[in-house]
Amino acid sequence: xxxxxxxxxxxxxxxxxxxxxxxxxxxxxxxxxxxxxxxxxxxxxxxxxxxxxxxxxxxxxxxxxxxxxxxxxxxxxxxxxxxxxxxxxxxxxxxxxx
Length: 98
Hints:
Elements: H1 3-7, E1 10-13, H2 17-26, E2 28-33, H3 39-50, E3 54-62, E4 66-69, E5 72-75, E6 79-86
Antiparallel strand pairs: 1-2, 2-6, 3-6, 4-5
């Protein structure tokens, strides 16, 4: 796969209470990914960027909510999340050792 494409797959880490619990308990990390990303691409992108070994990837498509702004009805963007499980002995540290 093209390395330039892999660098554009992961958009951002998803930070939430559920994601933090999954990271602590199951070594699962949650990322916002490109809408057209596939599981093999996500796996290679995580391994390339964080120098870890990925055990499994699960993908969730989240539909954007409909919201009202006064009389106007708007819609939030759809997004795609990837739950990435790491093999034993590997970890991702987003805070960095400072």
